[in-house]
Amino acid sequence: MPEHTQVLVRPVSPGDRDAWARLRRALWPDFDPPEIDGFFETGTFDGFDHCAVFVAEAAGDIVGFAEASARPYAEGCRSTPVAYLEGWYVAPDWRRKAVGKALVGAVEEWGRRSGYAEIASDAAVDNADSIKAHGRLGFAEEERIVCFRKAL
Length: 152
Fold this sequence. Notes:
By secondary structure, this protein is an alpha+beta fold. The protein has a single domain, classed as Aminopeptidase. The protein contains four helices and five strands. Strand 2 and strand 3 form a beta hairpin. The chain is globular.
């Protein structure tokens, strides 16, 4: 990849479906592919009413994505609703080149335009790389939780 390659961050389009699915699978191996088709049909996913998806395009390829929603609540936030960075992923060859920063910046701008005062996100407690990346982008850690489940 040439150093001068420009990266364009833009809203996802139906032509990006397969590339978005491939990257999404890299982040969430057990994701449900119909979620992508559902987003293109309704503009929403995961039961959230207000959503956005951005992709990073470089050299004709989709090299990253960011998904966002409006959640009624997020840990540590003082306002409601809250823009929520549901997930973001950058292909390994494109990491540490400001692609993730640009994707999160697009989500932040979407949040501002939508009238939200805060943005929240999460990472698994043991995902040190994601925690560091969030910190580099100005996110402040609010709390750590362990979630439990019990079948009834």
